Amino acid sequence: MFDPDIAPSGTLLGLLQRGRGDGTLHALAAPRAEALAALHHCVLRDPRCDWQVENRSLYYARLHLDLDGGLEEIEQHLFAPDDLLDTAEERTGLALAVLGHLASYGRDDALLLLRRYATTGGNWSWALDELALRDDDAGLAALGEIIVARFPRTPEGEAALAAAVRDAFEPRPWRLWAEDPHAPETAARVRAAQEQGSFDRWQRQLRPAGPRPGWSVREVLDWAQQGLALHPTQHRHVPATRCLTAVAGPEDRVEIIEAAADAPDAARATALRYLAEHHDPQALDLIEAAADDPRELVAEAAVTAFERMRSTEALERARGWIHRTDALGAAAAGMLACRGAQYDAPLVLGALRRTVRAEGPDAPVLWDLVDGAGRLAITCAAPVLRHVYRETSSSHLRGRAARALAATDPSFATGFAVECLWDCEETTRELAAHHATTADARVVEQLRRLAADPAEEAEVQTAVRSRFGPDAPAV
Q1: Per-residue pLDDT tens for 377-387?
Q2: Which of 14, 66, 182, 221 could hold 7 in an S-S bridge, CB 3.0 to 4.6 Å?
């Protein structure tokens, strides 16, 4: 997770950084040089709030094809001197993923660039994963000796090779190289690395770390606390809660309550989670007290424990805590949004407006509040939802706002649903395929394009076919 620099939502760059459908539509209407400059800015400086879960690569690759863009800027970025110094995946991951999609669309120059980077680049494993999905056996086989030669024939090098084989996201290249008769030495090293990886997993299973059968409640709490003294620190309160469930009985309740009230950080967090998961009558009072604790671990554990509760008592307490301005108040708002009754709609709407006004369109609790506005069909929340849709830098939150608007805004089908057909997230495109009015010629054309695109997700294409099939609703 990192903090990207996002341009205003009304600019072409800001639209493309957010992955909005209007970004593509505006780019195609803008001067080509300006559109390509904004596109390259996004590809080379990943704008995602969370690059591990948000989608942009297919979105940028499609626009790259529409603009008939070259690969010079991407090539310069991949092979810049920084590639030897900055090994973080997020520096080059998006560019490599875009190249992968371009290769799947038949761009041979993208395929060749991926092969070249896989043999010399710092983030070679990502490039290899892209090639594993798109390249043929002959192309992958030609890379085997070069990539395996990256690992020196030393104990350290062999261990690193075994780790690379074991952790590979796409195992296809390694399997090919292990069976390659034209490179017997490379094949032997890869097979040995595969065996070593299996042996390492077997050894870890033989030497499990952590609580053993017969441990007492005190021993489990001590084990959780000891993790904080290790380097690097191990936060054990979550697995310790599961262990506590296995060893604790009714006779241990008093000891656990005392730990939840006044134990060291990790032990207290463990006890709080245990009591919340078992719906103990004192859990909510202990959570309220711990949420005000200045120790971050304790306060966070209290909020998390409350969020996991599913009892009627927790819902009732949430109605009293929703006006708090701290993390516990946000958790209460999220709980009511997800599980509250229809008469909780005014509380959810108030929390939604208050959060956007105080914390902006990217506040974490907005995910639940936006969902709640749609679930409770709060029609007067539509203006706030439209603001969140336009301004948030999270494509996942924008998709949730679109789904809520579909339930609250009568103009959604002729408004935001149209641009959502070009959105970067497949779930948002699927929603648009169900709702966008086909009275707009652009909608029909894009629906047909999505239906014919082999890179499109199956769920989106199923939604598209439902608009044109014999049972499709009349427009």
Answers
A1: 999 999 999 99
A2: 14
CA gap 371, 5 in Å, rounded: 27
Residues 6+ apart with CB under 8 A from 171: 132, 165
Cα-Cα-Cα-Cα dihedral of 243, 245, 250, 252, to 10°?
30
Give per-residue pLDDT as tens, 192-232.
888 875 655 545 555 555 555 567 889 889 999 988 888 88
What are the domain boundaries of the chain?
Answer: 12-206
Q: What span, in angstroms and rounded, lies between the C-alpha atoms of 380 and 349?
A: 8
Side-chain-side CA neighbours of residue 390 (13 Å): 12
**Is the CB of residue 341 less than 8 Å from the CB of residue 355?**
no
Dump pLDDT digits (tens) for 3-23: 568 899 989 999 999 999 999
pLDDT (0 to 100) of residue 76? 95
For residue 28, name the pLDDT band (cuts at 50, 70, 90).
very high
- Note the pLDDT of residue 208: 54
Question: What's the pLDDT at 393?
Answer: 94
Angle between helices 327-339 and 296-307 (to 10 degrees): 10
Where are the alpha helices (H) located in 53-121, listed in sequence order? Answer: 57-66, 72-78, 82-85, 89-104, 108-120
Q: Are 451 and 464 in contact (CB under 8 A)?
A: yes
How far, in Å, CA of 418 to CA of 133, rounded? 32
Amino acid identity at 344: D
Give the list of residues 6+ apart from residue 310 with CB closer than 8 angstroms, or none: 339
Centre a 10 Å sphere on the Cβ of residue 324 and count the other Cβ atoms it contains: 16
C-beta neighbour count of 120 within 10 angstroms: 14
SS3 call for 440: coil
- Average pLDDT, stretch 271-292? 94
